[in-house]
UniProtKB/TrEMBL annotation:
InterPro entries in alphabetical order: DBL_dom_sf, DH_dom, GDS_CDC24_CS, PH-like_dom_sf, PH_domain, SH3-like_dom_sf, SH3_domain, SOS1_NGEF_PH
An annotated Gene Ontology molecular function: guanyl-nucleotide exchange factor activity
Designated name of the protein: Rho guanine nucleotide exchange factor 4
Encoding gene per record: SCAF11
Localization annotation: Cytoplasm
Keywords assigned: Cytoplasm, Guanine-nucleotide releasing factor, SH3 domain
Upper classification of the organism: Eukaryota, Metazoa, Chordata, Craniata, Vertebrata
Length: 550
């Protein structure tokens, strides 16, 4: 059988399982294993090993080594595959191995190279024209380096995806006694779809790649022509946390540990566990903007590829933002469902039936037809709808549902201080919601002018978000909505007192970016946004759900 043949090659199931559980470095650490690392460290033991920086490494961490593209780094330790320890002049620290390329000529003394640099005045023409390769000035050589790096990583990535599809998924489908299609979709997501797309993308790159003179390659258009198709990474990235959970459960069972390791060995894949392999597409889509930024940096404005690379960089940044936004929105729906489950006397459809994002919230005075009676209410502006609640007189952390407005059918009007002609009342810091049919008018009054302006901006943001969701095709599936509501109902059993809480907010505030080189492998840190991305509006506003606790 398949299983017996696999067992002959990798040993007994118990032996393999025990080895796996006892060897966390080999299977769980991205730096474990690999003949390349041994070879590099052997070179280091024989003397200094030098590498050229392909990208700038800017860091505020005193444990990390900062440098600029083109700098030469003395590699002191390359034991870890992802992070190496190096030295530039008098500075030492960790740096990403993927940011450098080992120098071809390791015989050139480091001191000679540094002396050469010291002899070139900073900012002089000689510095700009310095050659890092035969017959090419520095900037063109660096552009060639970046192009070669992009092509090399794309080819490696295709092999990586092929290994997962053929080495794991294909074998899993043969074992219907161990896996069903739902499990496989949960673990591997749409990685087979990524594989088909990336093969097509690599072919497009190869056509534009100038093998003889890489710096003359014009690859920017390849990214522009495929920017929409890159959005398929959104589904994969959104599913990845679920894949990790499912895989973690299976890896507690010996036969699955044995099976996955046998798949890796038969496919002759490097010594990394399956969860490490499955993280690669998440990292890949994040790396494109970095690579294109470096390519643009070393592309002269007169180069035929300059405008396309510039546009491609913006396009891939937008793809990363879109993926990040979709991931954030999917994470939000659980929190929104929990918020709704804490509201007393809820009526009508679930909030998730139409909405997936809290845009703004706060206290307002509501005046409506026909009585024009002042009512103090807590308002929550979601995409497509505005929900308002009443606070409990005794327990201020309890809210009662009082109604909602369909923002798709409402127009927001700024109201001047004074008497309102529609409701015949004198108002201050007010805005008006008028139904498009004209049969419904609501005045909302803020306590301060600046709060009124903030609400006006929030209503404008809501319309922009609805339009953006429509243009990008963003939606939450019925299954995702149902699962979120089921999870929320479990957190509030029947008969248990409800209160509006913020179950994840304090935890989020305690989270810090980890000191990566000392404790956490880079592969475990997923960042789907630019470093200076604006804080999520949801987290900014969810704190307002409980401003009334005493």
């Amino acid at each position: 059988t398949d299983k017996s043949s696999l067992g002959d090659e990798v040993g007994s199931e118990d032996d393999l399982y025990n080895e796996f559980r006892s060897s966390t470095n080999r299977f769980g650490h991205p730096g474990g294993g690999g003949g390349e690392q041994l070879a590099i460290n052997e070179l280091i033991s024989d003397g200094s090993v030098c590498a050229e920086a392909l990208w700038d490494h800017v860091t505020m961490d005193d444990q990390e080594l900062g440098f600029k593209a083109g700098d030469v780094i003395e590699v002191v330790d390359a034991t870890n595959k992802e992070w190496w320890w190096g030295r530039v002049l008098d500075s030492e620290g960790w740096f990403p191995a993927s940011f450098v390329r080992l120098r071809v000529n390791q015989d050139e003394p480091m001191d000679d190279y540094l002396a050469h640099l010291d002899g070139v005045p900073e900012g002089s023409g000689a510095s700009v024209g310095r050659s890092l390769g035969p017959g090419l000035p520095c900037k063109e050589q660096m552009r060639a380096n970046v192009i070669n790096e992009i092509m090399s990583t794309e080819r490696d990535y295709i092999k990586h995806l092929k290994d997962i599809c053929e080495g794991y998924i294909k074998q899993c489908r043969k074992r219907t006694d161990m896996f069903n299609e739902e499990q496989l979709r949960m673990i591997f997501g749409n990685i087979d779809e990524l594989y088909r797309f990336q093969k097509k993308f690599l072919k497009a790159l190869e056509k534009k790649f100038n093998k003889e003179q890489p710096h003359l390659s014009e690859i920017g258009s390849c990214f522009l022509e495929n920017q929409t198709e890159f959005q398929i990474y959104s589904e994969y990235c959104n599913n990845h946390p679920n894949a990790c959970v499912q895989l973690s459960k299976l890896m507690k069972i010996k036969k699955y540990v044995f099976f996955f390791e046998a798949c890796r060995l038969l496919q002759k894949m490097i010594d990394i566990s399956l969860d490490g392999f499955l993280l690669t597409p998440v990292q890949k889509i994040c790396k494109y903007p970095l690579q294109l930024a470096e390519l643009l940096k070393y592309t002269n404005p007169q180069h035929r590829d300059y405008k396309d690379v510039e546009a491609a960089l913006n396009a891939m940044k937008n793809v990363a933002r879109l993926i990040n936004e979709r991931k954030r929105r999917l994470e939000n729906i659980d929190k929104i469902a929990q918020w709704q489950s804490a509201i007393e006397d809820w009526e009508g459809d679930d909030i998730l039936s139409r909405s997936s994002d809290l845009i703004f919230s706060g206290d307002l005075t509501k005046i409506s037809q026909p009585q024009a009676k002042n009512q103090q209410r807590m308002f929550f502006l979601f995409d497509h709808q505005l929900v308002f609640c009443k606070k409990d007189l005794l327990r201020r952390d309890i809210l009662y549902y009082k109604g909602r407005m369909d923002m798709d059918q409402m127009e927001v009007v700024d109201v001047e201080d004074g008497k309102d002609k529609d409701l015949n009342v004198t108002v201050k810091n007010a805005l008006k919601l008028v139904s498009l049919a004209g049969d419904e008018v609501h005045l909302l009054c803020a306590k301060k002018p600046e709060l009124k302006q903030r609400w006006l901006r929030a209503f404008a943001d809501e319309r922009e978000q609805v339009q953006h969701d429509f243009e990008t095709g963003f939606s939450i599936t019925e299954l995702q909505k149902k699962q979120a509501m089921q999870n929320a109902s479990k957190s509030h059993p029947a008969g248990k007192p409800k209160a509006v809480t913020r179950p994840y907010y304090d935890l989020l505030l305690r989270q810090k970016h980890p000191a990566l080189p000392t404790s956490l492998p880079q592969q475990q840190v997923i960042m789907l946004a630019e470093p200076k991305r604006k804080t999520s509006n949801f987290w900014h506003n969810i704190g307002r759900l409980t401003p009334f606790k005493k």
